């Protein structure tokens, strides 16, 4: 329920990803590219040939002091024009951020041009993995991993924060698009104290089953989900084998219940979103209450 393609920073095209998923006996695959849904049509088309179910999704990365919070959005109304305009703005900020990061690296004695980064990214959503690869190509570091560990990590000397959304805003925009916002890999973010605030903003799930979560973390997030009535999702966050990350596709064991719960939650939130989009005079507090039944038509 978490994977990336060439539409953002994954190594495989959507078609190749789905074919690999089929070989790994994945039955349900969420494609969750960073700030892009451009991989979905091809993934859906290929999945139909393999009897694989595609969950439409995306991932929005945000920065907080000293750390970053990633928010997954599932079953959003992604073809909506306003939502695609929003994603284009997100990607424009990614392009601007690459310029800021290469300036920073140049100041740090590692000259690099934005064009070198964009040549690696091609049609994807530019981000630090592409910068990291450009640094490897220049010989500044031996691996993408080293580029992150030494320079590009959240509090690293060459990281430059985004100028876009707060985590709360990322949750809100996914809700506005009728989707299910899920906190991605909280074990990596190390900001669990933010969870109540995110839940108040409409967070509906926590990515619990994740290759880099320990058994104790999985248990703790599962219990947190039960307590807060959130969906416990999970996935490998597969990007391809080039990233130096351990997870292979299908390696996170996600119970099929998680997908059932996610679909149910999506349905519930869509109904709420429809009510929110109702008459503008309706006070917000009523938006989460059941719709009054329409009067019977006169005979
Ligand atoms: P960005 O899009 O600039 O926020 O970069 C986020 C992406 O960087 C993640 O989705 C991962 O693909 C990658 N990434 C983050 N940390 C690491 C790391 N330590 N090693 C390799 N890749 C990483
Ligand atoms: Zn990524
Ligand atoms: Fe992430
Ligand atoms: Fe991811």
Overview features:
six-stranded mixed beta sheet, binds fe (iii) ion, 44% helix, 11 helices, alpha/beta, 299 residues, binds adenosine monophosphate, disordered C terminus, 6 strands, binds zinc ion
Q: Could you write a compact summary of the structure shown?
A:
This protein is of the alpha/beta class. It has 11 helices and 6 strands.
**Helical run tally:** 11
Strand content: 5-15%
What ligand species are in this complex?
A: adenosine monophosphate, zinc ion, fe (iii) ion
Oligomer: single chain
Largest sheet: 6 strands, mixed
Order of helices and strands: HEHEEHHHHHEHHEHEH
Q: Tell me the Rg in angstroms.
A: 20 Å
Helix coverage percent: 40-55%
**Gap between N and C termini, in Å?**
50 Å
Unreliable sequence segments = 281-299
Average of the residue pLDDT scores:
92
Give the strand line-up of the largest sheet.
1-2-3-4-5-6
Anisotropy-based shape: globular
Number of DSSP E strands: 6
* Content-based structural category: alpha/beta
Describe the protein in words.
- The protein has 299 residues and is an alpha/beta fold.
- 44% of the residues lie in helices and 12% in strands.
- It is built from eleven helices and six strands.
- It has a six-stranded mixed β-sheet.
- The longest helix is centred in the first third of the chain and has 27 residues, at 81-107.
- It is globular and about 50 Å long.
- The N and C termini lie far apart (50 Å).
- Residues 281-299 have low confidence and may be disordered.
- The site of zinc ion has 6 residues, from loops.
């Amino acid at each position: 329920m978490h994977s990336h393609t060439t539409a953002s920073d994954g190594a495989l095209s959507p078609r190749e990803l789905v074919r690999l998923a089929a070989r790994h006996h994945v039955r349900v695959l969420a494609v969750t590219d960073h700030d892009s849904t451009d991989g979905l049509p091809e993934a859906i088309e290929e999945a139909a040939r393999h009897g694989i179910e595609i969950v439409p999704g995306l991932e929005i990365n945000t920065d907080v002091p000293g750390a970053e919070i990633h928010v997954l959005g599932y079953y959003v109304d992604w073809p909506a024009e306003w939502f695609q305009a929003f994603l284009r703005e997100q990607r424009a900020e990614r392009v601007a951020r690459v310029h800021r990061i290469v300036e920073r690296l140049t100041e740090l004695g590692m000259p690099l041009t934005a064009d070198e980064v964009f040549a690696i990214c091609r049609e994807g959503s530019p981000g630090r993995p592409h910068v990291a690869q450009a640094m490897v190509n220049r010989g500044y570091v031996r691996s993408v991993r080293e580029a992150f560990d030494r320079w590009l990590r959240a509090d690293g000397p060459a990281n430059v924060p985004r100028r876009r959304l707060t985590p709360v805003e990322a949750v809100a925009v996914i809700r506005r698009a009728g989707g299910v916002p899920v906190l991605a890999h909280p074990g990596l973010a190390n900001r669990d104290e933010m969870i109540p605030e995110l839940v108040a903003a409409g967070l509906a799930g926590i990515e619990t089953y994740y290759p880099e979560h320990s058994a104790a973390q999985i248990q703790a997030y599962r219990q947190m989900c039960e307590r807060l009535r959130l969906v416990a999702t999970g996935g490998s966050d597969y990007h391809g084998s080039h990233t130096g990350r351990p997870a292979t596709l299908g390696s996170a064991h996600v119970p099929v219940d998680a997908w059932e719960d996610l679909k149910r939650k999506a349905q519930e939130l869509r109904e709420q979103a429809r009510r929110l989009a109702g008459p503008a005079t309706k006070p917000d507090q009523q938006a989460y209450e059941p719709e009054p039944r329409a009067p019977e038509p006169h005979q």
